[in-house]
Amino acid sequence: MNAIVPTSPNIVIIGAGPAGVRAAQTLVEAGLHPIVIDENRRAGGQIYRQPPPGFVRSKKELYGFEAAKAEALHSSFDQLRPAIDYRPDTLVWNCMPGHPGQLDLLHAQRHAEQPYSHLILCTGALDRIMPFPGWTLPGVYTLGAAQVALKAQGCVLDGRVVIAGSGPLLYLLAYQYVKAGADVVAVLDTARFGGKLRALPALLRQSVTFAKGLYFMGWLRAKGIPLIDGVEQIAADGKHTIQSLRWTRGGKTTEIACDALATGFGLRSETQLAELAGCRFVFNELNQQWLPQRDDAGRSSVPGVYLAGDGSGIAGADAAELSGRAAALALLQDLGLPANAAAKAAAEQESRRLAQTLRSNLQFRQGLETAFPTAVHWARDCADDLVICRCEEIPAGELRRSVQQEGTVEINRLKAMTRVGMGRCQGRMCGAAAAEILAHATGVSVAEAGRLRVQAPVKPIPVSAALAAEEQT
Amino acid sequence: MSKPTDKQVNKVIDTDVAIIGGGLMGTAAALALRRQQRSVVVLEQGWCGAQASGVNYGGVRRQGRAACQLPLSQRAHGIWRRLAQTIGSDGEYIASGHLKLARSDADMQELIAYRETAAAYGLELELLEADALRRRYPWIGNQARGASLCVEDGHANPRLIAAAFARAAEQAGARLLQQSAVLECSFDGNYFTLINSRGERVRSRFLLNCSGAWGKEIAERFGETVSEQAIYPNMCVTEPLPPLMNLSLGVVGGAFYARQVERGNVVLGGGRGIGNLALDATRPRASSSFKALAALTEMVPALRNALVIRTWSGVEGETPDHQPVIGPSVTTPGLLHAFGFSGAGFQLAPAVGEVLAELVTKGESSTPIEAFSIKRFAVPQSSKEESKV
């Protein structure tokens, strides 16, 4: 144990993606022994998700341009293993603030508890769901799910695949899928090329990343994959599973036969644990989401709780690595580490540099938002029978009816009145869409529509796990 | 809350009755008072029915109540049976039956004794021995020693019921001021004056304190002593399951209570969460959830394989004797209380609303409520001064 720290802190990092791994590395370098809890079986997070052991595809094939970064992150983590308490395949389903705070865990269908003195939340993001006709049909996936299939399960969506939505990830996934031998029949982008040009100055700040995007597009075109921008009103059709996709462009409707659809409309931070940890939230205009408040280094409003990576605002994998390190440096600083004056000054200087880089990264992100705006009118235009909450099967019309007949103006009231967000996903999938419907129906902003309160468990837990825990007491 | 504008600050709303608290008690009273042509203003600090009234278990149960509550509970039962006509919505109310399980012979003796008590108030209960119980309800586990069934008790969806009462009251002409916390309240010998967080001034001849866990605070502003503490029920709900339990379940000792809703989810409670009196400041506790789930699955083994999708809590006011405070103030004429229902107010609310309306319009209740008088908390004059410190 490290002699510098008077009482051994119980530091828990949640998430072993780019942010979590770099945070752990920073703490280990300072002589600490953090606990790293990750829902996945292997470290890497979503972008650097690792295949099961024994998987034959190379990192180059799996991660393309990002292979070197993936390799670096995975090998860093492997080196950390002896110095950390690593708990893979473990869901943190609840967090109770306190001194110490407590995490409720689920591993191998068993409940466990973990006290903490410090928490670094690196909880990542999930796809933002934008409902459209047919979005609940079997065969319709999110981009994230399509990527999980590729990276963790070594397969691609079967048959003719259409990739549709908005955001740079469309082209990345299409590239990865074609490389892996998938039959990608079209890439449909709801953004227009004009928007991308407007965002050019901001995008050029990170010209390498932008160049990669252009490369993917060029590569896909060379392979003869149709790339269609300015697409509106996509709709999936099919009886028991998706059979075709329709869209309009310049008033003209087109239809393409397909067997699978991967859709992406950007990402949303996974903020449930931050809320359960008691963090204060503020509405973030760029992300159009309520996010835990954080300072430049990643300190939340709760002493001892730090935030890094996409879980507290979407900034991408490179930024996540930096913010993971920044949050860990902040934590060390708050512990009075390093004690040595020269080392302390160096750490402070690094923190400032990291904050600066992260701010510049944010400008790139703003550029991306301009290039790939979310379709703001969908909530106004969607039909009453479009299902918004798939768990509870609540259509848009029912949400609008509650506004009109019950005077509902706030998202938690909307949940109470209609059951939207009350199902298995607890609003992780439908919360944003429901808030947008509410905002349009009441004529207020999404921020004013309020924030859907989180209740444990973050994801469903089996009763049997509770029983096993109860038997132990 | 945004700051009130100058125009709002001077606004005076005159009404016959002002009600603090837009939960079930307050809105049921508002509805009953409107039927008697009284003008009503309800002041609610958050949203009507969003606190205990909307997040409780939803038991519409007479069985198990103390004898002193049974007349009121019976009266409420009559209103529940014609609920749809009363509030324009059935709120998923179903007279499913309420089964109170015994896990020991001592429990069974308790049920046998209670049956006698209830019979005196016209509440008929059917006792089932272990074999008969399992024949009728094969999904009940072997640990049950017997049960008492109240055929016409049942359950309802609190988040719909509470909202429906508020809406019915509003449609009947009550004025609901939501997001409207009471900052000041006073009585000048004739009229009550309330100032809310929106800067509005409400002046009334009667004031109803229907503020649940906050009831003590309001009573104290009029110099009344009450023992009331906040409690935080611990609730869970499973994913939707195939139909299994066709009635509301309880157990002697109260380790759990559970019902399966129409959608298939099993809603259950037991034990306590944690929290404070600020709005939305309650949390369920994993340990409480686990205990309730263990107790439930001992009685209903099939639920062992379900998934829990959400847990929650809320805030309720509990008195030392678990009886509510209902009736006139002892210090202030025109002030009427209805709070501190100790986690069992949901079923009673429609009757409490009618009783409060009777107290306003006739000066007396046609249902006995003496047991709930605030007088029972009166402290000797000498110690009163000390308690104010």
Give the N-to-C terminal Cα separation of chain A: 31 Å
Shape of chain A: globular
In terms of quaternary structure, the protein is: heterodimer
Number of domains of chain A: 3
Q: Which CATH first-tier class of the largest domain in chain A would you pick?
A: Alpha Beta
Annotated CATH architecture of the largest domain in chain A: 3-Layer(bba) Sandwich
Largest Cβ-defined interface: A-B, 32 and 33 residues
Q: Count the strands of chain A? A: 23
How far apart, in Å, are the first and last alpha carbons of chain B?
Answer: 32 Å
Q: What name goes with the CATH superfamily of the largest domain in chain A?
A: FAD/NAD(P)-binding domain
Describe the structure.
The complex is a heterodimer of chains A (473) and B (389). Chain A is an alpha/beta fold. Chain A contains 16 helices and 23 strands. Chain A has a five-stranded parallel β-sheet with strand order 3-2-1-7-20, with helices on one face. Chain B is of the alpha+beta class. Chain B folds into two domains: 6-54 and 159-227 and 321-378, FAD/NAD(P)-binding domain; 98-151 and 233-313, 2-Layer Sandwich (D-Amino Acid Oxidase, Chain A, domain 2). Chain B has helices at 6-9, 24-35, 52-55, 70-81, 83-87, 105-119, 130-136, 158-171, 215-221, 286-299, 349-361, 381-388, and strands at 12-20, 40-43, 59-60, 98-102, 126-129, 146-150, 154-155, 175-177, 182-187, 192-196, 201-209, 229-231, 233-238, 248-251, 257-260, 266-272, 274-275, 282-283, 307-312, 316-318, 325-328, 335-339. In chain B, the strands form six sheets. In chain B, strands 1, 2, 8, 9, 10, 11, 21 and 22 form an eight-stranded mixed β-sheet that branches. In chain B, strand 1 (12-20), helix 2 and strand 2 (40-43) form a beta-alpha-beta unit. Mean pLDDT of chain B is 94; it is low at 383-389. The interface between A and B is medium-sized, with 32 and 33 residues.
